[in-house]
Amino acid sequence: MRKIPVIIDTDPGIDDAVAIISLAGNDKVDIKAITTTHGNVGLEGTTRNALCLRELLDIDCIVSKGAAKPMIVSLKEASSVHGENGMAGYEMENPTKRVSDKAAWDVMYEIAKEENGELTLVVLGPMTNVALTILKYPDFFKYVKRIYMMGGSRDFGNHSQNAEFNIWGDPHACQVVLTSGIPITMADMGFGQEMSLTGAEIKEIYGSAKKLKPLTQAFLKHDIEWHERMCERIGQEIDFDSSDIIIYDATASVALLLDGESLVTEDCTVVCETQGSETEGQTVFDMKGHLKMKPNVQLAITMDREKYKRLLKSAFEHFE
User: Fold this and answer.
1) Are the CB atoms for 190 and 155 separated by under 8 Å?
2) 155: burial class by Cβ within 10 Å (0-12, 13-18, 19+)?
3) pLDDT 10s digits, 4-30
């Protein structure tokens, strides 16, 4: 069976790295390119992380640099969550291979045309690169089979009251993508919470990849310390092993792998708020047709949790 041709658009990022591992360690996937954008840390940092991960995971693909800032809103970052370098402070060896001379939007378009409508985009950060590709190449939508995106929230946000970080990072880009006509499967915050794993399960998954041990140890240490701070803040007893831990970006990558098997979705219309002073970046879900628009998103609702866990563990075991 032909492998699924994939471009990963990303801003690594701890959970981005886990998502990349989940795809790199799966024999159903052919990673054609990793394109980088602003987001968790600045573009130079996300690009270095992508280059380092490509070598660490032995991925035979292009790494291409994309947008250094959002289309309109001010630049935002999340180093307070992922560490100053985005990798929980772990310094990977300097990459020996260079970034592509071509910009992310040109790489996306060229590969999409080569794959003749079979390309899947896995978008793990702000959607600036995808939006710029759509705007530069009006026929791009014809060549993309589907986008699996991690972003948005049905309820409350994580970096503002109403907005999830990836969408908050470039709401105008999100709206361009939502109205592009490209089929979209959205793994929002609600789906991530539905697919949470216990701390003990995270330890088991990370421990499966002996080749990645220094990196996963840094991730685990970061997760434990973050959990301890959150527990202390709310006066809760610290028990990492039994607590729910969410790896948001991995839910989007595994949704691709499990689509058609155990992924449950619901068709709905989603628009992105780009102007509200208190709601900028909010994804608005019209589940009852009030907007009189055709559904433009398959919202991921749930998937088989044990299969999700097994797929992650199997991908990490690929790097024993």
Assistant:
1) yes
2) exposed
3) 999 999 999 999 999 999 999 999 999
